[in-house]
Amino acid sequence: MNFMELIDPADVFGFQQDRRINTANDALAKTKEAMDNAVKENKSLYGDYYDKVEGTYGDLAGKLNDYLASFEGQEVYQPGQFSFDKNVDDYYSKFANQRIAQAMNALRESSDMFSSDYQDAMAAKQQALASEEWEKAYQRYMQERGQAANEFNMNAQLGQQGYQNLYNRNKDLLGLAQGAQDNIMNAYGSYMNNLANMNMANAQNAANIGQAQAANENTRRTLLQRTLG
Fold it and tell me: Whole-number mean pLDDT of the chain?
């Protein structure tokens, strides 16, 4: 305060104090305006952040239900039971049967020409040939059955691997979609929390400014009462 302010006659009527109050109120109003602008800017920044997160993860998160349905709807792979629709008789030579039958008929028809020992020996030989043919048939049967079983097992393994690959893919896609949705929800939670905190702080600051302005006005009234009283 300089010398002119001390001898300013206007101060007798409180004009100088009134100007101080006006200046203080103007400063408070500017502070309130700056706060409001800051709130708008921060709100815009929070909104931009949420929009960017939603734009980045929104499409993937939107597929969550589809991926969940694919994951839950995948049928368990069932290879079934191995079966082989042939038997040893299918591999037994019909011509061998015919030859043996013809030889046995010939022996019976020529029973008067050959001794019983010879006939017995020939019959035993024919039985041995029949047994040999059966053994060959059995070996061919087992060989092809084994090949069919190997092919079945290989296909079953490929089917199981295909099922597992699809299961893993569906699981991974579901996890990615769930993670994307979590990111969006976290961003939205942060957005709302920041807005709430900002609004509370702004409301408190506005209340403080309002109280300060009210106090200034009360001072003005008191000064006016003293001046007039």
Answer: 79
Name residue, tokens 């995948």.
74
Non-local (6+) Cβ contacts of 194 within 8 A are 42, 46
Long-range pairs for 135-140: beta carbons < 8 A, 24 or more residues apart: 136/91, 136/93, 137/88, 137/89, 137/91, 137/92, 137/93, 138/88, 138/91, 140/91
Neighbours of 141 (CB within 10 A): 18
Q: List % helix, strand, coil for the chain (3-state, nearest 5).
A: 85, 0, 15
Residue 5, pLDDT > 50, answer no
**Residue 96, token pair as written in the block:** 């061998």
Angle between helices 116-228 and 15-62 in degrees, nearest 10: 170
